[in-house]
Specification:
Helix content is about 40%, strand content about 20%. It is α/β, with parallel strands linked by helices and about 240 residues long. It has two domains: about 10-50 and about 180-215, no CATH class; about 50-180 and about 215-240, Response regulator (Rossmann fold, 3-Layer(aba) Sandwich), CATH 3.40.50.
Protein backbone atom coordinates (compact mmCIF):
# COMPACT_ATOMS: atom_id res chain seq x y z
CA UNK A 1 0.00 0.00 0.00
CA UNK A 2 2.87 2.36 0.76
CA UNK A 3 4.48 1.65 -2.63
CA UNK A 4 1.21 2.20 -4.47
CA UNK A 5 0.68 5.49 -2.64
CA UNK A 6 -2.93 4.71 -1.70
CA UNK A 7 -5.25 7.55 -0.75
CA UNK A 8 -6.17 6.08 2.62
CA UNK A 9 -6.21 2.91 4.72
CA UNK A 10 -9.03 1.36 6.74
CA UNK A 11 -7.57 -0.94 9.40
CA UNK A 12 -10.57 -3.25 9.82
CA UNK A 13 -9.13 -5.47 12.52
CA UNK A 14 -9.11 -5.32 16.30
CA UNK A 15 -5.36 -5.83 16.65
CA UNK A 16 -2.44 -4.47 14.64
CA UNK A 17 1.31 -4.20 15.21
CA UNK A 18 2.44 -0.83 16.54
CA UNK A 19 5.35 -0.51 14.09
CA UNK A 20 2.98 -0.83 11.13
CA UNK A 21 0.71 1.83 12.60
CA UNK A 22 3.70 4.12 13.05
CA UNK A 23 4.78 3.69 9.40
CA UNK A 24 1.31 4.61 8.17
CA UNK A 25 1.07 7.57 10.54
CA UNK A 26 4.46 8.93 9.48
CA UNK A 27 3.39 8.92 5.83
CA UNK A 28 0.26 10.89 6.82
CA UNK A 29 -2.23 8.63 5.08
CA UNK A 30 -5.83 9.14 6.19
CA UNK A 31 -6.43 6.18 8.48
CA UNK A 32 -9.53 4.56 9.94
CA UNK A 33 -9.29 2.22 12.93
CA UNK A 34 -11.78 0.05 14.79
CA UNK A 35 -12.02 1.00 18.48
CA UNK A 36 -8.62 2.65 19.01
CA UNK A 37 -6.07 4.69 17.10
CA UNK A 38 -3.45 7.41 17.67
CA UNK A 39 -4.83 10.88 18.47
CA UNK A 40 -3.72 12.63 15.27
CA UNK A 41 -5.55 14.83 12.77
CA UNK A 42 -5.58 12.19 10.01
CA UNK A 43 -6.86 9.38 12.26
CA UNK A 44 -10.52 8.44 12.47
CA UNK A 45 -11.96 5.76 14.73
CA UNK A 46 -15.03 3.53 14.47
CA UNK A 47 -16.30 3.11 18.04
CA UNK A 48 -18.32 -0.06 18.54
CA UNK A 49 -20.99 0.46 21.19
CA UNK A 50 -20.36 -2.75 23.12
CA UNK A 51 -22.20 -1.50 26.18
CA UNK A 52 -25.69 -1.41 24.66
CA UNK A 53 -25.67 -4.89 23.13
CA UNK A 54 -24.00 -6.59 26.07
CA UNK A 55 -26.31 -4.84 28.53
CA UNK A 56 -29.28 -6.11 26.50
CA UNK A 57 -27.83 -9.64 26.59
CA UNK A 58 -27.29 -9.56 30.36
CA UNK A 59 -30.74 -8.07 30.97
CA UNK A 60 -32.30 -10.71 28.70
CA UNK A 61 -30.68 -13.49 30.72
CA UNK A 62 -31.58 -11.82 34.03
CA UNK A 63 -35.20 -11.41 32.90
CA UNK A 64 -35.32 -15.16 32.23
CA UNK A 65 -34.15 -15.68 35.82
CA UNK A 66 -30.42 -16.28 35.39
CA UNK A 67 -28.18 -15.12 38.23
CA UNK A 68 -25.14 -17.35 37.67
CA UNK A 69 -23.80 -15.97 34.39
CA UNK A 70 -20.26 -16.63 33.15
CA UNK A 71 -18.29 -14.78 30.49
CA UNK A 72 -15.70 -16.08 28.02
CA UNK A 73 -13.45 -13.19 27.01
CA UNK A 74 -11.35 -12.66 23.92
CA UNK A 75 -7.56 -12.35 24.17
CA UNK A 76 -7.07 -9.61 26.74
CA UNK A 77 -4.22 -7.88 24.91
CA UNK A 78 -6.94 -6.56 22.56
CA UNK A 79 -8.77 -3.41 23.62
CA UNK A 80 -11.99 -4.71 22.06
CA UNK A 81 -11.85 -7.84 24.24
CA UNK A 82 -11.26 -5.75 27.36
CA UNK A 83 -14.15 -3.45 26.37
CA UNK A 84 -16.53 -6.41 26.00
CA UNK A 85 -15.48 -7.93 29.33
CA UNK A 86 -15.82 -4.60 31.13
CA UNK A 87 -19.25 -4.02 29.57
CA UNK A 88 -20.33 -7.42 30.90
CA UNK A 89 -19.05 -6.74 34.42
CA UNK A 90 -20.68 -3.30 34.49
CA UNK A 91 -24.00 -4.70 33.25
CA UNK A 92 -23.94 -7.40 35.93
CA UNK A 93 -23.11 -4.85 38.63
CA UNK A 94 -26.01 -2.64 37.50
CA UNK A 95 -28.34 -5.55 38.29
CA UNK A 96 -26.66 -6.24 41.63
CA UNK A 97 -25.24 -9.54 40.37
CA UNK A 98 -21.78 -10.69 41.44
CA UNK A 99 -19.36 -12.49 39.13
CA UNK A 100 -17.02 -15.00 40.80
CA UNK A 101 -13.47 -14.89 39.43
CA UNK A 102 -13.80 -18.44 38.07
CA UNK A 103 -16.77 -17.33 35.95
CA UNK A 104 -14.48 -15.13 33.81
CA UNK A 105 -12.48 -17.37 31.47
CA UNK A 106 -10.16 -16.13 28.74
CA UNK A 107 -10.57 -17.40 25.17
CA UNK A 108 -8.91 -16.40 21.91
CA UNK A 109 -11.88 -15.46 19.68
CA UNK A 110 -11.53 -18.81 17.89
CA UNK A 111 -13.65 -21.95 18.12
CA UNK A 112 -10.80 -23.87 19.75
CA UNK A 113 -10.52 -21.21 22.44
CA UNK A 114 -14.26 -21.45 23.05
CA UNK A 115 -13.99 -25.21 23.48
CA UNK A 116 -11.15 -24.91 26.00
CA UNK A 117 -12.83 -22.12 27.95
CA UNK A 118 -16.16 -23.95 28.08
CA UNK A 119 -14.43 -27.09 29.34
CA UNK A 120 -13.14 -25.04 32.30
CA UNK A 121 -16.68 -23.85 33.06
CA UNK A 122 -18.07 -27.38 32.70
CA UNK A 123 -15.62 -28.48 35.41
CA UNK A 124 -17.17 -26.03 37.91
CA UNK A 125 -19.63 -27.23 40.53
CA UNK A 126 -22.24 -25.95 40.12
CA UNK A 127 -22.22 -25.22 36.40
CA UNK A 128 -23.25 -21.61 35.61
CA UNK A 129 -26.77 -21.44 34.20
CA UNK A 130 -25.69 -19.14 31.33
CA UNK A 131 -22.54 -18.09 29.50
CA UNK A 132 -22.01 -14.95 27.42
CA UNK A 133 -19.19 -15.19 24.86
CA UNK A 134 -16.98 -12.42 23.48
CA UNK A 135 -17.72 -13.45 19.89
CA UNK A 136 -19.75 -15.99 17.93
CA UNK A 137 -16.83 -18.30 17.08
CA UNK A 138 -16.19 -18.63 20.82
CA UNK A 139 -19.88 -19.39 21.37
CA UNK A 140 -19.83 -22.02 18.62
CA UNK A 141 -16.85 -23.62 20.36
CA UNK A 142 -18.78 -23.55 23.63
CA UNK A 143 -21.73 -25.28 21.96
CA UNK A 144 -19.35 -27.91 20.57
CA UNK A 145 -17.84 -28.57 24.01
CA UNK A 146 -21.29 -28.89 25.57
CA UNK A 147 -22.42 -31.32 22.86
CA UNK A 148 -19.99 -33.89 24.31
CA UNK A 149 -21.57 -33.68 27.77
CA UNK A 150 -25.00 -34.48 29.24
CA UNK A 151 -25.67 -30.71 29.45
CA UNK A 152 -28.24 -29.53 26.91
CA UNK A 153 -28.53 -26.03 25.42
CA UNK A 154 -30.66 -24.21 26.45
CA UNK A 155 -32.31 -26.63 28.94
CA UNK A 156 -29.25 -26.88 31.22
CA UNK A 157 -27.24 -23.82 30.16
CA UNK A 158 -27.97 -20.80 27.97
CA UNK A 159 -25.34 -19.56 25.51
CA UNK A 160 -25.04 -16.07 23.97
CA UNK A 161 -22.57 -14.93 21.32
CA UNK A 162 -21.44 -11.60 19.93
CA UNK A 163 -21.19 -10.36 16.28
CA UNK A 164 -24.12 -12.25 14.68
CA UNK A 165 -22.04 -13.89 11.97
CA UNK A 166 -24.03 -15.60 9.21
CA UNK A 167 -23.43 -19.06 10.69
CA UNK A 168 -25.03 -18.12 14.04
CA UNK A 169 -28.60 -18.55 12.82
CA UNK A 170 -27.84 -22.04 11.46
CA UNK A 171 -26.40 -23.50 14.66
CA UNK A 172 -28.31 -26.14 16.61
CA UNK A 173 -29.87 -24.50 18.48
CA UNK A 174 -29.80 -21.16 16.59
CA UNK A 175 -27.56 -18.82 18.55
CA UNK A 176 -28.82 -15.85 20.53
CA UNK A 177 -26.20 -13.17 19.92
CA UNK A 178 -25.36 -9.47 19.99
CA UNK A 179 -25.43 -8.11 16.45
CA UNK A 180 -22.72 -5.79 15.21
CA UNK A 181 -23.66 -4.96 11.63
CA UNK A 182 -20.83 -5.47 9.12
CA UNK A 183 -22.76 -3.19 6.74
CA UNK A 184 -22.78 -0.39 9.33
CA UNK A 185 -19.07 -0.93 9.96
CA UNK A 186 -18.22 -0.86 6.25
CA UNK A 187 -20.38 2.19 5.54
CA UNK A 188 -18.85 4.12 8.43
CA UNK A 189 -15.33 3.14 7.31
CA UNK A 190 -15.94 4.46 3.78
CA UNK A 191 -17.50 7.67 5.06
CA UNK A 192 -14.64 8.22 7.51
CA UNK A 193 -12.02 7.60 4.80
CA UNK A 194 -13.73 9.98 2.39
CA UNK A 195 -13.73 12.64 5.11
CA UNK A 196 -9.96 12.28 5.38
CA UNK A 197 -9.24 12.02 1.64
CA UNK A 198 -11.43 14.67 0.06
CA UNK A 199 -9.94 18.13 -0.30
CA UNK A 200 -13.08 19.71 1.11
CA UNK A 201 -12.69 17.89 4.45
CA UNK A 202 -12.37 20.31 7.33
CA UNK A 203 -9.77 19.84 10.04
CA UNK A 204 -12.54 20.16 12.57
CA UNK A 205 -14.62 17.31 11.10
CA UNK A 206 -15.59 14.52 13.48
CA UNK A 207 -12.98 11.91 14.34
CA UNK A 208 -15.31 9.18 15.67
CA UNK A 209 -18.17 7.15 14.21
CA UNK A 210 -20.48 5.15 16.49
CA UNK A 211 -21.30 1.56 15.45
CA UNK A 212 -24.52 0.35 17.11
CA UNK A 213 -25.09 -3.11 18.59
CA UNK A 214 -28.31 -4.92 19.51
CA UNK A 215 -29.41 -8.26 20.88
CA UNK A 216 -30.86 -10.88 18.51
CA UNK A 217 -32.80 -13.51 20.48
CA UNK A 218 -32.90 -17.02 19.03
CA UNK A 219 -33.15 -20.46 20.67
CA UNK A 220 -29.93 -20.89 22.67
CA UNK A 221 -31.34 -19.06 25.71
CA UNK A 222 -34.15 -20.17 28.03
CA UNK A 223 -35.21 -20.22 31.69
CA UNK A 224 -32.53 -21.49 34.12
CA UNK A 225 -32.51 -25.24 34.79
CA UNK A 226 -34.52 -26.35 37.78
CA UNK A 227 -36.73 -23.26 37.97
CA UNK A 228 -40.51 -23.62 37.80
CA UNK A 229 -40.86 -21.88 34.39
CA UNK A 230 -38.19 -24.20 32.96
CA UNK A 231 -39.93 -27.30 34.37
CA UNK A 232 -43.30 -26.15 33.02
CA UNK A 233 -41.81 -25.41 29.60
CA UNK A 234 -40.03 -28.78 29.48
CA UNK A 235 -43.25 -30.58 30.49
CA UNK A 236 -45.10 -28.75 27.72
CA UNK A 237 -42.52 -29.86 25.15
CA UNK A 238 -42.79 -33.45 26.38
CA UNK A 239 -46.58 -33.31 26.13
CA UNK A 240 -46.44 -32.03 22.56
CA UNK A 241 -44.31 -35.02 21.58
Amino acid sequence: MLQRNVDGVAVMTFGIEEDLVQKLVEREFPLVFVDAGPSLHNIRVLKVNYAVGIRQAVQHLAALGHRSIAFITGPLHLRSAIARRDAFLKSMAELGLTVPAEHIVQGDHRMEGGIGAMEKLIALDPLPTAVLCSNDMTAIGALHALSHTPHKVPDDISVVGFDDIHLAQFMLPPLTTVQMSCKDLAAAAVEALRTGIEKTALKGSKAEWQIPTRLVVRQSTAFPRGTLPALVERAGHAGNK
